[in-house]
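go over both lines:
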Amino acid sequence: MTAPAHTVSRGRRITATVLIVLASLIAFVSTLTLWVDRQLLDNGAWTTASKEVIQDPAVQQTLSVYLVNQLYSNVDVASSLRERLPANLDPLAAPLAGALRQPAERTVSQMLARPRVQNLWIKASSVAHQKLVNVLENKTGQGISTGNGVVTIQTAGLVQRLATELGLSGKLVSKIPPTAGTIVLFKSSQLDAAQNAMAVERALSRWLLVLVIAMYVIAAFLVKGRRRVTVRTIGWSLVGVGLAVLVTRKLVGNYVIGLATTEQYRLTGHRIWLITTSVLGDIGWAAVLYGALLILAMALAGPTRPAVALRRLIAPVVVRDGFVPWGAAALFLLVLVLWGGTHALRTWWGIAAAAVLLALGVVAFRRQLQTELEPQAEQPDTPQTKEKPVLT
């Protein structure tokens, strides 16, 4: 006799489906909070992104134009030239200052390719980012002011350093005001909203992912007898979430880049967007990868002819020799860790979670193969025929 199939009520199936849909929507939101937490608010990730940004040639070119504009706005370059020219050539000072703007931009661009200047920019960016996060978390950050109704970061030190590198006189460099290169981050009317958003993001980034996993587990638990199909659906949902994140990154990036007024700024904006959203892209591809692995695992455990034939082929080895499945799982985990293609695989807790899930998968798969082998073991090796009575 075969065991009766488990029947799942219509209410349970609907509840499981609703849980999967809601969990997928929450998973999409959680990817955004994870990106903000891991890249935009993490100082180490921000410093790494700043390094990639300043090493990009397109960014160097655009930044050189900005810095030269700041210098010309705060320093009388024509006056500096007039001091060095003979008195009869004073009228040429202003035209020469204008003619030197493009060579100055090329000089600054070459300077920005030097590791020493890049480190100056990276350090300034890292310090400014940490102070900004302190302000958003209602902590006091030295170097960030909230006067006159705005929150600003002062970068006059970098402008002065570049002015010195360009060969301007120390007298003129010392006259560069502290407000040179000031970047306005928030207006006072926006600060409270930003701080509230920070508090919400901190709470969501910690619990949304836990909620998603719990909802997926409950959905699979509710439909005993249809769990393989349900887990496969969860896999497809993860693939959908990952693709939605990647598409959103692309569309939002195109919109933001489209706001640039010139082609040069669009190219620079494209490079900066790709760098500053790299973690978001990693999360999207990670969701696709994990979903695809779930789908493949459920296909291997399914009733299709190729799956059944493959299970029959490997069942004797997997069930009777425990070293083979556990060794294969350990090798697969090692390959994943060495690859490190997702953020979780670069953290101890992510590796531990992957190890636990692989162990549970090996146990479940061996149990399924053992169950499928039992009916074959009960069958006799050779058919027995009933002897007919001999009539005498």
User: Anything to note?
Assistant: Confidence is low (pLDDT under 50) at residues 384-392. Residues 232 and 296 are 8 Å apart (CA to CA). The chain has two domains: 10-37+192-376, 41-181.
